[in-house]
Amino acid sequence: MTSVNAPMQEVGEAGDGASMSIDGWHNSIARNLNSAFYITKLSLPHLRESSAGRIIMMSSLTGPVMAIRNDVAYGATKAGMVGLTKSLAVDEAKHGITVNAVAPGWIQTASQSISEGHEGGSTPMGRSATPAEVGAVVGFLASREASYLTGQVIVIDGGNSISEQRTVR
């Protein structure tokens, strides 16, 4: 079994549609979306030879599922990554290759800010995901047991995207 994990950096210039610089927009696309395509393009010949390859994209909750203020480029690139996932899944199925994406929410890492930790605490699960929890989903997607699962986005967010939080009750 061959596995390709294409994690993308979650950095880029923040801004809304009016304030985002053209260079910031292009840099975000290059960092998040183009790099996913380039890694995949370079991997496809080997994966096609194996007839059982796996491509796993690291998307995000932001973009394909939810939006946050002042982060137009990041959300657009992560939503674009989901489109890339689905298109590749259709094209590569005939070669025995599955293509899926994971869309994590808050993840407890060394780089998680205090405010991000608080946001993770406001999910229905009451905490951020651990890297091991995200890794377990990626491991399953890379396994033989996931050989019929393709073109899907697996959300790992502790129920954050299904819970409507209201400030006024």
UniProtKB/TrEMBL annotation:
Instruction: Tell me the InterPro entries matching this sequence.
Output: NAD(P)-bd_dom_sf, Sc_DH/Rdtase_CS, SDR_fam
Q: What range does the record give for the signal peptide?
A: none
- Alphabetical UniProt keywords: Oxidoreductase
Oxidoreductase as a keyword of this entry, yes or no, is yes
Similarity annotation? Belongs to the short-chain dehydrogenases/reductases (SDR) family.
MF terms per GO, please?
Answer: oxidoreductase activity, acting on the CH-OH group of donors, NAD or NADP as acceptor
Name of the featured protein: Unannotated protein
**Organism listed in the record:** freshwater metagenome
**Gene3D superfamilies, A to Z:** NAD(P)-binding Rossmann-like Domain (3.40.50.720)
